[in-house]
């Protein structure tokens, strides 16, 4: 039985998702303000802002039922960023975009699950946050196209290429989560 589940899990598609430098830096930290009471004193706690935008994005994929199988924080070189966006090399914004992607930490991830490439793009929303629906990541958390906080592969070939560019095979894990039978109905 376990073997069947493992085979099933291995057949799920994978996509490359990245929190771009603006997403990492934005923080969206207001939810992290808390008041700690100690005797008669109260202190406002401001936790480091970096954690929140990243966790917000991770939790949206996780809550849907997708599985995180690889994650790392990297500052890509401009050359590497150019490779990632090679399909856009003739666009006027290509140079600025490559420079921007290499300007700070990026959280690179691989997510796995049925339909994760297409549905991941739905969770992310339209490229231009002005056109992204409310409820999507870009719709809720970003304002302009040049700072739209997240990247997601746009198709199976791109997903394969981007995963290979950002991750070595040994940096990705294969496992069956306990929730899988409840998410997919596999016995
Ligand atoms: N981009 C930009 N200006 C534009 C269009 C795109 O700066 O007019 C940036 C934006 O950050 C976008 C990225 O280039 O996320 C890649 O563009 P693509 O068309 O592949 O959109 P995505 O797949 O990210 O939605």
UniProtKB/TrEMBL annotation:
<dbReference type="GO" id="GO:0006228">
    <property type="term" value="P:UTP biosynthetic process"/>
</dbReference>
<keyword id="KW-0067">ATP-binding</keyword>
<dbReference type="GO" id="GO:0005758">
    <property type="term" value="C:mitochondrial intermembrane space"/>
</dbReference>
<dbReference type="GO" id="GO:0004550">
    <property type="term" value="F:nucleoside diphosphate kinase activity"/>
</dbReference>
<dbReference type="GO" id="GO:0005524">
    <property type="term" value="F:ATP binding"/>
</dbReference>
<dbReference type="GO" id="GO:0006183">
    <property type="term" value="P:GTP biosynthetic process"/>
</dbReference>
<keyword id="KW-0546">Nucleotide metabolism</keyword>
<feature type="domain" description="Nucleoside diphosphate kinase-like">
    <location>
        <begin position="12"/>
        <end position="174"/>
    </location>
</feature>
<comment type="function">
    <text>Major role in the synthesis of nucleoside triphosphates other than ATP. The ATP gamma phosphate is transferred to the NDP beta phosphate via a ping-pong mechanism, using a phosphorylated active-site intermediate. Shows the highest specificity towards GDP.</text>
</comment>
<keyword id="KW-0547">Nucleotide-binding</keyword>
<keyword id="KW-0808">Transferase</keyword>
<keyword id="KW-0460">Magnesium</keyword>
<dbReference type="GO" id="GO:0009543">
    <property type="term" value="C:chloroplast thylakoid lumen"/>
</dbReference>
<keyword id="KW-0418">Kinase</keyword>
<feature type="binding site">
    <location>
        <position position="20"/>
    </location>
    <ligand>
        <name>ATP</name>
    </ligand>
</feature>
<feature type="binding site">
    <location>
        <position position="138"/>
    </location>
    <ligand>
        <name>ATP</name>
    </ligand>
</feature>
<comment type="similarity">
    <text>Belongs to the NDK family.</text>
</comment>
<keyword id="KW-0479">Metal-binding</keyword>
<dbReference type="GO" id="GO:0046872">
    <property type="term" value="F:metal ion binding"/>
</dbReference>
<protein>
    <recommendedName>
        <fullName>Nucleoside diphosphate kinase</fullName>
        <ecNumber>2.7.4.6</ecNumber>
    </recommendedName>
</protein>
<dbReference type="GO" id="GO:0006241">
    <property type="term" value="P:CTP biosynthetic process"/>
</dbReference>
<feature type="active site" description="Pros-phosphohistidine intermediate">
    <location>
        <position position="151"/>
    </location>
</feature>
<feature type="binding site">
    <location>
        <position position="93"/>
    </location>
    <ligand>
        <name>ATP</name>
    </ligand>
</feature>
<feature type="binding site">
    <location>
        <position position="121"/>
    </location>
    <ligand>
        <name>ATP</name>
    </ligand>
</feature>
<feature type="binding site">
    <location>
        <position position="148"/>
    </location>
    <ligand>
        <name>ATP</name>
    </ligand>
</feature>
<feature type="binding site">
    <location>
        <position position="127"/>
    </location>
    <ligand>
        <name>ATP</name>
    </ligand>
</feature>
<comment type="subunit">
    <text>Homohexamer.</text>
</comment>
């Amino acid at each position: 039985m376990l073997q069947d589940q493992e085979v099933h899990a291995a057949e799920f598609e994978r996509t490359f998702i990245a929190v771009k430098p603006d997403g990492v830096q934005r923080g969206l930290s207001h939810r992290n303000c808390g008041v700690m009471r100690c005797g008669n004193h109260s202190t406002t706690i401001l936790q480091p802002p970096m954690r929140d935008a990243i966790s917000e994005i991770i939790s949206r994929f996780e809550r849907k039922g997708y599985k995180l199988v690889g994650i790392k924080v990297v500052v890509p070189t401009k050359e590497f960023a150019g490779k990632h966006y090679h399909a856009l090399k003739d666009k006027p914004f290509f140079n600025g975009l490559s420079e921007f992607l290499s300007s700070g930490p990026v959280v690179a991830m691989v997510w796995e699950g049925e339909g994760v490439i297409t549905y991941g793009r739905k969770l992310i929303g339209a490229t231009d946050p002005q056109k992204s629906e409310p409820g999507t990541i870009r719709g809720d958390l970003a304002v302009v196209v040049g700072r739209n906080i997240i990247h997601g592969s746009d198709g199976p070939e791109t997903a394969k290429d981007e995963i290979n560019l950002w991750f070595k095979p040994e940096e990705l894990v294969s496992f069956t989560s306990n929730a899988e039978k409840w998410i997919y109905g596999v016995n």
